[in-house]
Fold:
Amino acid sequence: MDLFEKLQKRVGPLAQYADESYGYYMFPKLEGEIGPYMTFRGKEMLNWSLNNYLGLANHPEVRKADTEATAKFGLAYPMGARMMSGNTVMHEQLDRELAAFESKEDAVLLNYGYQGMVSAIDALVDRHDVIIYDGESHACIVDGVRLHMGKRFVFEHNNMSSLEKQLERATRLTDKSDGAILVITEGVFGMTGAQGRLADIVALKAKYKFRLFVDDAHGFGTLGKTGAGTGEEQNCQHEIDIYFGTFAKSMALIGGFIAGNKDLIKFLRYNLRSQIYAKSVPMPIVAGALKRLDLIRKNPQFKANLWTIVTALQKGLREHGFDLGRTNSCVTPVIMHGSIPESTAVVNDLRENYNIFCSVVVYPVIPKGMILLRLIPTAVHTLEQVSQTISAFKEIREKLNKGLYTAIKVVSMAE
Structure:
């Protein structure tokens, strides 16, 4: 069989709707200044879909730093992989400042968070080692685990009894093979908003020998007294052996980093294939990250403003009987029940009649019969916008419960 013919037979559950949904339900185009209001298909929308947690995307000092660094260095400098010709004083400064912010000895920059996580897992373990990871881990963790040539066990999401069973199983294997155990979880699970039970996992170190790798993409900048993340929030930051953060959420940028002790980071600098064989992070991104980190350190009101909006949104939704699942972070999932056609009708109604833009998640990401509308609050949303959204969601839920969306046939929205 021809490869391309074969691909057409396994396009997947999402791509089968590509012709009808491209540009509207999938791959939508938001235009204008990044913020609570953006333009979608010529209409101004109240936007709850951007990971601009601290509102830094359009902060004047950030825009100024980005512009000046681009004018000074361009996007090409430095050329080459960091190990060969792409290292600079500013890259090393950012490494140090990120490490200090996370209370770690050292840190290493990553071009992209996703590929950095995949590559880090690949570098850290060999075929004698055992990986144990949370069952609701992000795709970057799952893809990294898939590269592992040794044993890999999954534990039920945030279930410490399940984790302990897998630790016992892994310990028996590594005692025979002289291997090691790596436990991987998330600080905040991006779909449900639930914090990983880091403190409880750390407590298991008293009984089992393992190292802990935490993907804190949604916790970095949003949780903890200083914004250092979920480990700081749960008072166990020092027991996180390998800390991963991304610039794509709180810092409204691209790239990421891994922080840990000096020996770990030295190992990663010389063994992270995604960095050794890829161009160094361009200077405007490095300069922009330094400015953003400085603003986060000096302006605790950014995080305070964010949590004012988070608290108002989640408290208001819960008071009106909405199911927000297990979230104890900024991520706000609103769970409803209905079919995939009903979910498209809900989204269409929200956008066309309420001018509200948010992300919808359906099967196969979540079980059949569920609709998850994910809201991402930011520090630059307002309490008035929260009230507007809650009112709209109350009306949407009433229509859904009455079955009014069942009879609606949503025509192709593709441009």
